[in-house]
Design goal:
This protein is an alpha/beta fold. It contains 13 helices and twelve strands. The strands form two sheets. Strands 8-7-6-9-10-11-12 form a seven-stranded parallel sheet, sandwiched between helices. Helix 6 crosses helix 8. It starts with a helix and ends in an 11-residue tail after the last helix. The model has no long low-confidence stretch (mean pLDDT 95). Residues 36-335 form the D-isomer specific 2-hydroxyacid dehydrogenase catalytic domain. One of its GO terms (molecular function) is transcription corepressor activity. Keywords: NAD, Oxidoreductase.
Length: 337
């Protein structure tokens, strides 16, 4: 199935294309509605209430569907969309979309990688790092329980002079590095097979294997996509290479970390702690083994968020939908054929 065939089908669509936005979404979708109105598109909020059958019944009427982390658009869901429809993912990650199934049905998938996440996520990663290393959250809890002068009962180590290990060296990782430099981090190791040594040298960073990072870095920050290659990169074996000063930060994808293995290491005080904005299972479940651990900081996948980033992501996602409905060729087309 080629792009020309997709465009031919698109030309046969009804005069008012339908764009569905899945809920839960954002507080207001007037931004998307205003942009899509310019091409005569109808915007529908898909209140599927987490019920898959209800969602599947809605899909055949859509020309474009716009989604966040949920729902999962697997092969069955994509088969329910009209051939030649389109999918827009608010944000960067597309691991909840079967890209091959969409390609086979001539359905372009677009994401929004340029909404400014490098600012917010880098800020959040730095905030988590400081909160973990300086024990801000646990100290606040202790003081609230009338504990005082904890001091060396729970050692705190200086950030300046620490070795920083980065997994992935994209825009967010580089922005995070710039923030950590301000706190005196000089020695930087990077595991990213897709980045050259010369490129790393421009940032005064050195290439390393992940095993080397686990053994040498006091702060390890994950900035890699969720792929078969990166799944459970942090596992029982790699955690065993770390030590009692290792601080693990994850603002990328929850699947990079084996939750059970990490929980076991934290319970046994094998590492200093972990600060995670993403989890393998989201939203967090009652039985998540990380809940309640004193050396863990958990946030609700909010690293991307600010009011500025929300408006930007809504605008750019709506423009991607417009591109699909008009030219058939979105700027950020992730499943090209």
């Amino acid at each position: 199935m080629n792009n020309a065939e997709t465009l031919d089908r698109r030309a046969l669509r009804k005069a008012a294309p339908v764009v569905g936005i899945t809920e839960p979404g954002y507080a207001d979708h007037s931004v998307e509605a205003g942009i899509l109105k310019s091409i005569g598109a109808e915007v529908r909020l898909l209140r599927w209430e987490g019920k898959r059958d209800k969602l599947l019944d809605m899909l055949p009427e859509l020309d474009v569907i716009m989604i966040r982390d949920l729902p999962l658009l697997d092969r069955e869901a994509i088969a329910a969309l009209p051939a030649g429809a389109g999918i827009v993912r608010y944000g960067v990650g597309v691991d909840n979309i079967d890209l091959d199934a969409a390609r086979q049905r001539g359905i372009p998938v677009a994401n929004v990688p340029d909404y400014g996440a490098d600012v917010e996520v880098a800020d959040h990663a730095a905030a988590l790092t400081l909160a973990l290393v300086r024990r801000v959250v646990s100290r606040a809890r202790q003081v609230d329980n009338l504990k005082w002068n904890i001091a060396q009962q729970e050692p705190i180590y200086r950030i300046a002079g620490s070795t920083l290990g980065l997994v992935g060296f994209g825009k967010i990782a580089r922005a995070y590095l710039a923030r950590m430099r301000a706190f005196g981090v000089d020695d930087v190791l990077v595991y990213d097979p897709y980045v050259s040594d010369d490129y790393l040298a421009q940032y005064h960073a050195r290439p390393a294997s992940f095993a080397e990072i686990c053994g040498k870095a006091q702060i390890i920050s994950l900035h890699a996509p969720a792929t078969a290659e990166t799944r459970h990169l942090v596992n029982a074996d790699t955690l065993a290479l770390m030590n009692k000063r290792t601080c693990l930060i994850n603002t990328s994808r929850g699947g990079l970390v084996d939750t059970d293995a990490l929980a076991a290491a934290l319970k046994d005080d094998k590492i200093f702690g972990a600060a995670l904005d993403v989890l393998e299972q989201e939203p967090i479940g009652e039985n998540c083994p990380l809940r309640g651990l004193p050396n863990v900081i958990l946030t609700d996948h909010t690293g991307w968020y600010s009011e500025a980033s929300v408006r930007s992501i809504q605008e750019k996602a709506a423009l991607a939908a417009c591109e699909i409905l008009t030219t058939g060729v979105p700027t950020h087309w992730v499943n090209r054929w």
